[in-house]
Write a structure and sequence with these properties.
It contains 12 helices and 8 strands. It is of the alpha+beta class. A hairpin with a 5-residue loop joins strand 6 and strand 7. Helix 5 packs across helix 7, helix 8 packs antiparallel against helix 9 and helix 9 packs antiparallel against helix 10. Bound molecules: flavin-adenine dinucleotide (FAD). Flavin-adenine dinucleotide binds next to strand 1 and helix 12.
């Protein structure tokens, strides 16, 4: 059996040989949560050639058979090396639900295409008016022969502009409780009647969209699980949405911020890094990141030993996203005026435009603005606090 040290060396060698300067730069210049699709596809295909694109899947579907320690090492080493972060929509969301609820024909069709990166998926859950209260969703689907006919819209649909498939929750029955009468459908995102309208975020980036459905005919073969039982599938999928570590990447970012703060000498011959208030803020953030990493390790060891994790993942989501916001605030403080120019072309994949100031300067403002959303997505922090107050305080 391979020791963890040998395995770590193997991962490091792979990363140093395959993570090209272009991909490293794209990872460094990324201001959103996930790499833009051209970057993600390229990295995903390199991982697939190595047999590591879907490491957590069962071996029969192309997974690696690694144990939990190996998965943790793989994640950590990718973060340390600055690899692009690939959206989980396909590999960690729709893939596992197809395995759990799909027919053999659906498994045979969808899973290999996810693994190879031929299909890129968008998540059609949220609607205007249905986010935290997802079960209130209204997008309708009516059965007509061998098709469902869909009318309504989905919103905040990340990377829909780059996806060729979408998984959608639609309402097929209104007679029971809101959780009943929801159906989970898989279909092509370019069917007639589908319109994707960009939503440009405050950072100027195009990450998400509103998707409109006007009499869209979706073949019944795209039904996943039972009609009207999509809530069961939806909940199963959400268990796979979260995961990974916040602390490791944030520590790297904080170090870059401290390094930058030591380079700019002001009129009185000192740097920001000499400023006692800035020093205190960096030190306090570093300590809180150590505490966060401790929490993440606790969760990991609970999972490893099969203990109940309670609301620990909610606590980590809240703390991790708050720390993301804290670190990007410090980034703005450190880069100062360099954060002002809007430089999307310097952040584009394979661009030959050098950033003004530094990579940190070009990404600090868009990261700061994008990270305001961190406390909203993947279950808002208020909802996570509700979960904790029920589980821990019994409220
Ligand atoms: C960057 C980003 C990417 C996203 N990508 C996708 C995607 O690809 N696909 C998709 O389907 N969705 C996506 N979403 C949507 C996301 O899931 C929702 O934004 C989220 O569920 C919150 O819903 P909402 O925006 O409707 O806010 P609301 O639910 O209307 O909440 C508004 C405010 O009220 C608070 N609140 C709501 N209910 C309660 C309560 N019971 N108790 C206390 N406070 C409460 C919330 O915390 C929030 O502060 C994305 C969101 C973001 C920000």
């Amino acid at each position: 059996m391979t020791s963890l040290t040998t395995f770590t060396d193997e991962v490091r060698t792979f990363l140093s040989e395959n993570l090209t300067p272009d991909l490293r730069r794209a990872g460094e210049m990324c201001a959103g949560i996930y790499a833009d699709q051209p970057v993600a596809v390229e990295w995903h295909r390199i991982l697939n050639a190595q047999g590591w694109a879907v490491p957590a899947w069962p071996v029969e579907y192309g997974g690696t058979g690694w144990d939990l320690d190996q998965h943790a090492v793989f994640q950590r080493e990718q973060t340390l090396a600055g690899a692009p972060v690939v959206t989980p929509n396909a590999t960690r969301m729709v893939g596992p639900v197809v395995m759990a609820f799909g027919t053999q024909a659906q498994k045979d069709h969808y899973l290999p295409r996810i693994r190879t990166g031929d299909d890129w998926w968008a998540q059609g859950y949220s609607e205007p008016g249905s986010g935290s209260d997802l079960a209130s969703l209204q997008c309708r689907a009516e059965r007509d022969g061998d098709d469902y006919v869909i009318n309504g819209s989905k919103i905040w649909t990340t990377h829909a502009q780059w996806s060729n498939k979408i998984f959608c929750l639609v309402r097929t029955d209104t007679s029971g409780k809101p959780q009943q009468g929801i159906t989970f459908l898989l279909f092509d995102i370019d069917l007639p009647g589908i319109e994707i309208k960009p939503l440009i975020s405050i950072s100027g980036d195009h990450e998400f969209n509103q998707v409109f459905f006007d009499d869209v005919r979706v073949p019944v073969s795209g039904l996943l699980g039972e009609e009207n039982d999509g809530w069961t599938v939806a909940k199963y999928l959400l268990q796979h949405e979260r995961g990974g570590s916040y602390a490791v990447g944030l520590k790297i970012r904080l170090q870059k911020i401290s390094d930058f703060a030591a380079t700019e000498v002001s009129g009185n011959g000192t740097t920001l890094a000499d400023d006692p208030d800035f020093k205190r803020a960096v030190a306090a953030t570093r300590i809180e990141l150590d505490v966060l990493e401790g929490f993440e390790q606790r969760l990991f060891s609970a999972v490893r030993s099969g203990e109940p994790i309670g609301s620990l993942s909610s606590a980590i989501k809240v703390r991790g996203t708050e720390m993301r916001q804290r670190v990007t605030e410090l980034g703005i403080e450190a880069v100062g005026y360099y954060g002002l120019p809007y430089q999307p072309e310097a952040r584009t994949f394979r661009s030959n435009v050098e950033p003004l100031g530094s990579a940190l300067a070009a990404t600090s403002m868009p990261q700061y603005l994008n990270d305001r959303a961190a406390s909203i997505y993947a279950g808002s922090n208020e909802i996570q606090r509700n979960i904790m107050s029920k589980a821990v305080l019994g409220l």
